[in-house]
Every structure is written in C-alpha cells, then in structure tokens.
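Sat 14:20. Reprocessing the chain from the morning session after the first attempt stalled halfway. Input below, unchanged.
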Amino acid sequence: MAILEYDDNYFMNKAYELALCALEEGEVPVGAVIVCNNKIIASAYNQTQKLNDPTAHAEMQAITCATEAMGGKYLNDCTLYVTLEPCVMCAGALYWSQISRVVFGAKDEKRGASRLSENIYHPKTIVTSGILEKECSELLKDFFKKRR
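Finished this time. Tokens:
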C-alpha cells in the first residue's frame, strides 16, 4: 500500500484540477483549496462569468466555504492553495479571515497583491509562492492567448 504524502505539491495539484474545471466552463482558470489539519475543507474555482459576479474569485468562494466548515469567520491553522497569486480584493479578504498561510502557483504581475509596496496579508500569515508555478502559469497564458 502506497503512503500518500500531503505536501504543498499535493494540495496545489488539487487546486490545479479545479482550475481545469474553471477552464472547461470558460472561466479564467484559477482553482483554490483550503486545508486544515491535512484535510481539504473547501474547494472552489473562478465563477465570475457563471455567477455574473466580479467577486466570485476562487479564493473568495473558498473562504466562504471554509468559514462555514469551520463554524466561524477565522481560518487560523488553515492554508489556502491557489493557482494564481491573490489579487488585492482576495488578499484583503484573506487578511480578515486571519488565514495562517497562503500558497500560490503563478505570480500575477498586473493584479497580484505583491505588487503593492506594503504587505496586505495579515501579519501572521505566511506566504509561499512558486508551487507548480510553470504549470499554473502556462494554463493561464494558454487561456488568454486563445481569447485574443
């Protein structure tokens, strides 16, 4: 019997699978999972087109699902895995959730929260970037190339 290793790559692959679901639905291919104690408690992908809602980013959908699962508005001891760096809106929501850790794949040079001169995440939030960066970045580049 194989031992399954739950690490950043494992959970980012789960987020990537959700990004593929978004792609199939014509959405910008971004997927997210929120993990607590090595268990996925929330999963989502972009649904801005489907819901006609500019706030329906994968992260926002996942935060809502995770807070319901946790029974409260704080996501202490939780990690968000998302295929694209969170935008300022999502980073702000993550700040208020007090999530412990944010892990993202592709960097978003135009709209990502890191483009700000100050850290927008909660002071206790640890941010890790570049997990499956190549795969996540290529998925987004291919999507936008086909749309142009």
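The chain has five helices and five strands.
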